[in-house]
Design brief:
Elements lengths: L2 H35 L6 E5 L3 H7 L4 H22 L3 E8 L7 H20 L1 H5 L2 E6 L7 H14 L5 E9 L1 H17 L10 H5 L12 E4 L18 E4 L9 H13 L7
Length: 271
């Protein structure tokens, strides 16, 4: 057998292996989808999208390229949530602590945010499905150009209520809680609120998430098993799910597995 024939044989075997793997994946995905559709779906899913930089390093990419791939994965996640009828999606895009990262990386992320928020404001899919876009966080910490892009996306989707897409940007939960405490204290000082009237619902009304139900499921990628200052008040009764997969490599079957895990748990809410 000639060398060319040998190489051709390897190529054919590789293609056969690829087709078999693809067929097996698609079959498993369909089975998982059928399984999760038969059980109660979470209303609100929150995601800590971790692992962009480690994914980039593993595949010889720059940090900026890793973040870009993470942004693309987020587009897929939004589709998956709508396909399952999950009404509220909250994602942890950029924490206040992330502002301390390398200047070049932060500037690259800000350009990505600006581009993405303008794109969301014009996205045909967003308008067709009536997705309301909301940014949670300290917007005053962001560049003016990013704030303008956020304003554009929020105003263009303000009247929608079929789905809710919350993007936590320059967000820190401890800061959010402190801000709520200050606002409540000022209301009490001004005589607009009685101390005895302050309860969990009152407090929740002063958080960024006042208009949304608490998350049912919080999912974190990349193998880290911590919350990292994300929705600390709101996650009181949320189910937590951790996966080793880096965010850009997160697949639909990984998401379906997380939903299935949620469905198999008994939620007692402390009772």
């Amino acid at each position: 057998m000639s060398e060319d024939n040998g190489e051709e044989g390897k190529a054919i075997k590789n293609e056969i292996s690829r087709v078999i793997a693809s067929t097996a994946y698609n079959t498993y995905e369909k089975r998982l989808m059928k399984e999760v559709r038969e059980s109660k779906m979470p209303n609100h899913v929150a995601v800590i999208m971790d692992g962009n930089r480690r994914f980039a390093k593993e595949f010889g990419l720059t940090a900026a390229e890793g973040h870009a791939k993470g942004k693309d994965k987020l587009e897929e996640l939004l589709d998956w949530c709508m396909e399952l009828g999950i009404k509220v999606l909250t994602v942890y895009a950029f924490s206040t602590e992330n502002l301390k990262r390398d200047t070049d990386e932060v500037e690259s992320l800000m350009r990505l945010f600006e581009e993405n928020f303008y794109r969301l404001g014009d996205d045909e899919r967003v308008h067709r499905h009536k997705i309301k876009v909301t940014v949670l966080g300290q917007k005053d910490l962001l560049p003016e150009s990013v704030k303008e892009a956020i304003d554009y996306a929020e105003k263009r989707t303000a009247g929608y209520s079929s789905y809710y897409y919350n993007i936590a940007t320059a967000y820190g939960s401890r800061q959010e809680i402190i801000q709520a405490i200050k606002q409540i204290a000022q209301k009490v000082k001004d005589g607009q609120l009685e101390v005895g009237d302050i309860d969990e619902r009152t407090f929740s009304n002063y958080l960024y998430t006042a208009d949304f139900p608490d998350p049912d499921l919080i999912l974190r990628t990349s193998g880290e098993e911590r919350i990292s200052n994300f929705l600390l008040w709101q996650l009181a009764y949320a189910e937590l799910y951790f996966t080793d997969v880096y965010w850009p490599g997160f697949r639909k079957i990984d998401f379906l597995r997380a939903i299935r895990s949620y469905q198999l748990r008994q939620r007692r809410f402390g009772k």
